[in-house]
């Protein structure tokens, strides 16, 4: 009888332990699921950025400091950033990226900007066209087209999405130009054709600037220019225009993203004005993440 009592006690003890373990597993499972998904931002250790010279990267580092975030800012490229974003969304994993509008990723994915109560990223921006000093005298026809160039988010989005879906940038630009000839005619109004004159356009490899630069290239070629386009980081693009190594760009983001470069080279470049309005930068996350503000990343 004594042996049976011990066995019974052992059995009861084991049953109780297993029951408690089961309860603990259920509770831990719920918590672990939340922690592993990190969709409240708790599982993140970095912000996925683009090239280190971009103004949005400086603003992102400023946001880390201003909001006291325990996150590292990882520099990469626009293409690497969107690849990381797509992979995270495929697996419904948490991710924060440096984002900007216009960009095809907002058409492809359900994304949201995180609120920025400290206004680190500033208000909406505009994209400006800049030329080297003297281009108006050396290439007046090209200068007129560049001065007239202006389009909307829908226009740019059409080209960007076409490129993202696999169309060669030059082909996507030519397709847009062909289907928007009335708009292009406004840019070339009163412009005479030239005979193979050369002109160079600098740009940063952001999807928005790939789209705009290739469209301008196509239009300039249609009036007889031999156009060379050169991809480079923001710092080199501004320096190239300022020192005359590059003729023009349609990729100057102001007043925030390229503020530092504009201040450095303002007296050495010519601002032809805005070619796109309503641009925006900030920290971006997938809609499924349960956060709404940069403060939630603490």
Automatic annotation (TrEMBL):
Listed InterPro entries: ABC_Gly_betaine_transp_sub-bd
SUPFAM superfamilies assigned to the protein according to its UniProt record, in alphabetical order: Periplasmic binding protein-like II (SSF53850)
Coiled-coil zones: none
Pfam (any one): OpuAC
Highest taxon of source: Bacteria
Alphabetical keyword list: Cell membrane, Membrane, Signal, Transport
Signal peptide: 1-21
Location within or outside the cell: Cell membrane
Ranges of residues in domain ABC-type glycine betaine transport system substrate-binding: 42-178, 198-298
PANTHER family recorded: GLYCINE BETAINE/PROLINE BETAINE TRANSPORT SYSTEM PERMEASE PROTEIN PROW, GLYCINE BETAINE_PROLINE BETAINE TRANSPORT SYSTEM PERMEASE PROTEIN PROW
UniProt name for this protein: Glycine betaine ABC transporter substrate-binding protein
């Amino acid at each position: 009888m004594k042996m049976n009592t011990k066995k019974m006690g052992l059995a009861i003890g084991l049953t109780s332990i297993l029951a408690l373990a089961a309860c603990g597993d259920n509770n831990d499972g719920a918590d672990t699921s939340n922690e592993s998904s990190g969709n409240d931002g708790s599982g993140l250790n970095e912000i996925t950025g683009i090239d280190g010279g971009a103004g949005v990267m400086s603003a992102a580092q400023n946001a880390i400091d201003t909001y006291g975030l325990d996150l590292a800012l990882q520099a990469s490229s626009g293409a690497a950033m969107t690849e990381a974003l797509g992979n995270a969304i495929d697996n419904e994993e948490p991710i924060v990226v440096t984002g900007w509008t216009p960009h095809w990723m907002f058409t492809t994915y359900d994304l949201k900007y995180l609120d920025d109560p400290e206004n680190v990223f500033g208000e909406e921006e505009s994209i400006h066209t800049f030329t080297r000093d003297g281009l108006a005298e050396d290439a007046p026809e090209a200068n007129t087209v560049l001065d007239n160039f202006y389009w909307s988010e829908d226009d740019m989005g059409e080209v960007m999405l076409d490129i993202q879906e696999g169309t060669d940038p030059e082909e996507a630009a030519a397709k847009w130009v062909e289907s928007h000839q009335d708009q292009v005619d406004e840019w070339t109004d009163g412009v005479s054709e030239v005979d193979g004159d050369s002109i160079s356009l600098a740009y940063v490899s952001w999807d928005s600037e790939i789209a705009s630069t290739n469209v301008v290239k196509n239009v300039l070629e249609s009036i007889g220019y031999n156009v060379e386009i050169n991809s480079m980081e923001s710092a080199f693009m501004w320096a190239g225009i300022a020192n005359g190594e590059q003729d023009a760009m349609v990729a100057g983001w102001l007043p925030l993203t390229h503020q530092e470069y504009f201040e450095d080279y303002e007296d050495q470049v010519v601002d032809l004005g805005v070619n796109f309005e309503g641009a925006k930068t900030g920290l971006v996350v997938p809609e499924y993440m349960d956060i709404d503000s940069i403060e939630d990343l603490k």
